[in-house]
Amino acid sequence: MAAKIKILLAEDERMLSEILCDTLRDRDFEVQAVYDGEEALERVRTESFDVIVTDVMMPRMDGFTLAKQLRKAGYQTPILFLTARSATEDVVKGFEVGGNDFLKKPFALDELIVRLRALAGRIQPREERSTYQIGRYTFDPHHNSLTLEQEQITLAARETAVLLHLCRQMGQTVEATTLLCELWGDDNFFNLRSLNVYISRLRRHLAADPQVEIVNLRGVGYCLRG
Q1: I need a surface site. Which of 98, 102, 206, 220 has the fewest CB within 10 A?
Q2: Which helix or strand (DSSP H or E) is residue 91 part of?
Q3: Distances in Å between the alpha carbon of 154 and those of 6, 201, 213?
């Protein structure tokens, strides 16, 4: 029998938390509930989970800060944000701090379950080369850094993920749909706008070497050349 998917649920609204826990357990998930960000952080430090589900607004430590602290400490567990906020800047910030998916309240429980299974079932990261050479830049995906001569740029987690996908197929077109489905879990228009933001940021980071470019093939995807 396959192991149950182990979920950490950080939600300070007790009634909602209880409903979610009961539903997920009925669907054969293993769930642990905590009620603030600091408690969630401590739980992750002592146990391993397949997915972390966290509300954005929580006492003691909000969900964005929790995600940022986890990624800074090296934890790569997929994070799904529950939120009543849907402004573009909030979503972009969530991905910047290392989140993997958003679900806006109120939501259908079946949709949450589908997203959890998708996050838990993602292919584990392949063994990566320690660095990639992009023109005169050295890209280190393990440390989220781009280095040109003596100048080092620290990348956001989502910038690293996008650039890594492009580096794996240097000189070839990577379909936007592929990037969106693998990194965002959905290729909808809203996520495409977020991807375009990260492509623009990466172009700025790489601008010091004119031989390096990220080419946009309209309606298809992106190609990294350098």
Answers
A1: 220
A2: helix 88-96
A3: 32, 12, 19
* Cβ(10)–Cβ(53) below 8 Å: yes
Between CA 97 and CA 153 the distance in angstroms is 16
For the entire predicted model, the pTM comes to 0.56
Per-residue pLDDT reduced to its tens digit, 81-130: 988 776 667 777 888 888 888 888 888 888 899 889 888 875 444 445 67
Label residue 142 by pLDDT band (50, 70, 90). Answer: confident
**Which helix (H) or strand (E) segment is 178 a member of?**
helix 176-179
Q: If you average pLDDT over each of 25-34, 66-75, 91-100, 167-176, which comes out highest?
A: 25-34
Distance between CA atoms of residues 37 and 126, nearest Å: 30
Q: Which residues pair with 173 in a beta bridge?
A: 223
Domains within the chain, CATH numbers bracketed? 6-120 (3.40.50.2300), 132-225 (1.10.10.10)
| Longest pairwise C-alpha distance within the chain | 56
Return the number of other C-beta atoms located less than 10 Å from residue 1's C-beta: 4
d(CA 148, CA 22): 52
The token pair at 180 is 């969106």
